[in-house]
Amino acid sequence: MSSEISVADYVVGNYVMKLHNHYQALAKADLIVYEETCEGPSHDANWTVTVRVEGVAAQATSRKIKWARDMAARQVMTALNILPEGENP
């Protein structure tokens, strides 16, 4: 699954925390796996983060690791249909 959100338009929504809290409440937080890679020089790095949960994976790339993590977590939550009520996919 690739990012469908423009990085320029993206606002960090704490989806990493929301994903963790959801699975922590189910006592399954250990099911969340993050893979992070960085390409390019440190002053111009691009981070790619893949989040895997229960056989579902999502990947996002950004110059900021926090944004990449958050976008990937949001995509996983969307795919698993566990976005908090009122948040559009």
From TrEMBL:
Entry superkingdom: Eukaryota
All residue ranges annotated as the DRBM domain in the record: 14-82
Database matches in InterPro entries: dsRBD_dom (IPR014720)
CDD domains found in the cross-reference section: DSRM_SF
GO molecular function, one term: RNA binding
Pfam family, one: dsrm
Keyword list, A-Z: RNA-binding
Taxonomic source organism: Botryobasidium botryosum (strain FD-172 SS1)
The name this protein goes by in its record: DRBM domain-containing protein
